[in-house]
Amino acid sequence: MRKLTDSQLQFLSEQNITLNLMFDGEGFTKTEYQERMKSLGKLFVYNTSPCKNSGHSLRSRSGHCIQCNTAYIGFTKRSSKAGFVYIAQTKNGKLIKIGFSENMREREKSLIRTKYGEFDDWKILFGISCINAGKLEIEIKKEMNKYAQVKTYNHDGKKQVADELYRCKYSIAKEKLKELSSNPIFNSENVEM
Fold first, then answer.
1. Cross-strand bridge partners of residue 158
2. Are β-strands 158-166 and 148-155 bridged in parallel, bridged antiparallel, or unpaired?
3. pLDDT for 70-126, tens place per residue?
4. pTM above 0.85, yes or no
5. Is residue 115 exposed (0-12), middle (13-18) or buried (19+ Cβ within 10 Å)?
6. Could you give the CA distance from residue 30 to residue 35 in angstroms, rounded to a whole number?
7. Could you tell me which residues come within 8 angstroms of residue 80 by beta carbon, excluding any fewer than 6 positions away?
8. How far from 85 is each of 41, 91, 104, 110, 173, CA to CA, in Å?
């Protein structure tokens, strides 16, 4: 069994990845290590086949090189976080927003304060509290893609992209979110606002 190298340990420390999130993938195929990691709650793997770009062997559970693109670290951590997947609505914009938050009340205030998508009348109407809320957010956004709307807005003097917006009835989003969250892996609970 190969150990983590000093440079890998330094990288993990710099990225705030604790060793309890790591899985030794030596001798496993990608499918095998993904299944084992999922059952053990591990997010990152080492001792895998080297990446094509730089020969790194630290990867996310999905197989992406986390040294070549550190954005996969945050994405992987977020997808396994507990929290809320919420549905907010702006009546002025006739849009809904689907997102993830650890605190829905603060998130609603933030949407209003930042005028997300150029609207300041956001109201969070419904949420699902669950483990793996980040994963549930990903799944609902895939399902809602046909309703997607993209808008730009100014936030702190910088142009931002609002890409979590959907043009559909609130009831459509709510029913789809409830349906997806009924999967036992989410261990979910509905929260009416």
1. 155
2. antiparallel
3. 988 988 887 777 889 999 999 999 999 999 998 999 999 999 999 999 999 999 999
4. no
5. middle
6. 9
7. 41, 43, 132, 134, 135
8. 21, 20, 9, 15, 11
The Cβ-side half-sphere exposure at 191, using a 13 Å CA radius, reads 17
Residue for token pair 């001792």: 47
How far is residue 36's CA from residue 23's CA, in Å, rounded to a whole number?
9
Query: What is the distance of C-alpha 26 from the center of its chain?
Result: 27
Scored b (16 or more CB within 10 A) or e, 59-77 reads bbbebbbbbbeeebbebbb
- Per-residue tokens: 106: 């603060």
Strands in the chain per DSSP E: 22-24, 44-46, 59-60, 83-90, 95-101, 123-130, 148-155, 158-166, 189-192
Which tokens in the block code for residue 33? 């290590």
At 65, is the secondary structure helix, strand, or coil? strand
Burial label for 16, CB within 10 Å (0-12, 13-18, 19+), is exposed
- The amino acid occupying position 93 is G
